[in-house]
Design a protein that fits this description.
Number of domains: 2
CATH superfamily of the largest domain: Aminotransferase class 4, branched-chain amino acid transferase, N-terminal domain
Order of helices and strands: EHEEHEEEHHEEEHEEEEHEHEEEHE
Protein name: Branched-chain-amino-acid aminotransferase
Strand content: 25-35%
Largest sheet: 9 strands, mixed
Distance between the termini: 29 Å
GO molecular function: L-isoleucine-2-oxoglutarate transaminase activity; L-leucine-2-oxoglutarate transaminase activity; L-valine-2-oxoglutarate transaminase activity
Family: Belongs to the class-IV pyridoxal-phosphate-dependent aminotransferase family.
Helix content: 25-40%
EC number: 2.6.1.42
Radius of gyration: 21 Å
InterPro entries: Aminotrans_IV, Aminotrans_IV_CS, Aminotransferase-like, B_amino_transII, BCAT-like_C, BCAT-like_N, BCAT_family
CATH topology of the largest domain: D-amino Acid Aminotransferase, Chain A, domain 1
Number of strands: 18
Bound molecules: pyridoxal-5'-phosphate
């Protein structure tokens, strides 16, 4: 059932925020705190497929208390940004990759696959009505949160026969308000993020729910994020709660990241950085990496930089790794050169300050 052309019914908000109110929010948006005046909704049911695509005023969703998502967690999501370029135009980064990933997540969670062109069109539709929310401030963006829920009212355990896809949008300031600063992360040995054969490779809310307790433990140890190991041997690096992880071997100009294992989320930032590193002649390795390799490599000086990456923060330098009874790295050391130059290169492409040689950008307005 290919439905590549759904037309969107647009209802403008009767009381959108005033230019003044919006300006005040955009001055200091933080992350995920404020939402634009509109949202996108597209419905699906087993008999008719995708239908009723609409842009509506932003507001609460009415759900039957028996809706599948409330009981069995049938939910998936995406995260993707809009960037304003110097000439005022608005662009996004590799949206087809996010659309394809949403389809893979849908398959795993027994939700319907949204055609990628409807996914991309939904970003264009919300941009058309909320474009004034895309700030031109330095490293500001409009963060889109597309998501899908099973909303059939039925308590039997099976994939819902009704689902809805939504897009909401939230203005985001620079992730590091005071400049990019290395963080400390906590190695969780009590918990795994994902199980073998589980949902680790799907971007689903349930994975995040499972990461919140270890995340609290990390915070209690003065760390900002958790690092998870593989769920079988508890030996190999997987990723952080919501970011992929990279090691830089400075002397050999090598970039290493854990190979996709079936329980690692396939980050689009991860894949893009691997490409940029290859382009600049670095050796790139996607392979198994043990936690001992990290500890020993930092101690011996072979591993010169470590960082995490994802759409929200782009690249976060990791200054220190802590775990039960050990600590490696130096939190007070400045972020590494490779980390910062990859970060600059990627954001320069996203904000149109450097040629988009891989054709990663898609225009959202006009
Ligand atoms: C979204 C996400 C990432 C990063 O993916 P990007 O496409 O780079 O934003 C990494 N790990 C997890 C668990 C995620 O949910």
């Amino acid at each position: 059932m290919s439905q590549s052309s759904l037309s969107f019914d647009v209802t403008r908000s009767a009381n959108p925020r005033s230019a003044d109110e919006r300006a005040k929010i955009l001055e200091k948006p933080g992350f995920g705190l404020y939402f634009t005046d509109h949202m996108v909704a597209v419905r699906w049911d087993k008999d008719t497929g995708w239908h009723d695509a609409a842009v509506t005023p932003y507001g609460p969703i009415a759900l039957d208390p028996a809706a599948a998502v409330l009981h069995y967690g049938q939910e998936i999501f995406e995260g993707i940004k809009a960037y304003r370029h110097a000439d005022g135009s608005i662009w996004t980064f590799r949206p087809e990759a996010n659309g394809a990933r949403l389809q893979r997540s849908a398959r795993r969670l027994a939700l319907p696959e949204l055609p990628v062109d409807i996914f991309v069109e939904s970003l264009k539709q919300i941009t058309a009505v909320d474009k004034d929310w895309v700030s031109d401030a330095d490293e500001a963006s409009l963060y889109f949160r597309p998501f899908m829920i099973g909303d059939e009212a039925f308590l039997g355990v099976r994939g819902a026969h009704k689902a809805s896809f939504y897009v909401i949008a939230s203005p985001a300031g620079p992730y590091f308000a005071k400049g990019v600063a290395p963080v400390a992360i906590w190695l969780s040995t009590d918990y795994a993020r994902a199980a073998k054969g589980g949902t680790g490779a799907a971007k689903c809310g349930g994975n995040y729910a499972a990461s919140l307790l270890p995340q609290q433990q990390a915070q209690a140890q003065g760390c900002s994020q958790v690092l998870f190991l593989d769920p079988v041997e508890g030996k190999y690096l997987e990723e952080l709660g919501g970011m992929n992880v990279f090691l830089v071997y400075g002397k050999t100009n090598t970039l290493v990241t854990p190979a996709l294992s079936g329980s690692i989320l396939e980050g689009i930032t991860r894949e893009s950085l691997l490409q940029l590193a290859r382009d600049r002649g670095m050796t790139v390795e996607e392979r198994k990496v043990t936690i001992d390799e990290w500890k020993q490599g930092v101690s011996s000086g072979e591993i010169t930089e470590v960082f995490a990456c994802g759409t929200a923060a782009v690249i976060t330098p990791i200054g220190q790794l802590k775990g039960e009874g050990f600590s490696v790295g130096d939190l007070s050391a400045p972020a590494g050169e490779v980390t910062m130059s990859l970060r600059k290169e990627l954001t320069d492409i996203q904000y149109g300050r450097q040629p988009d040689r891989h054709g990663w950008l898609v225009r959202l307005d006009g």
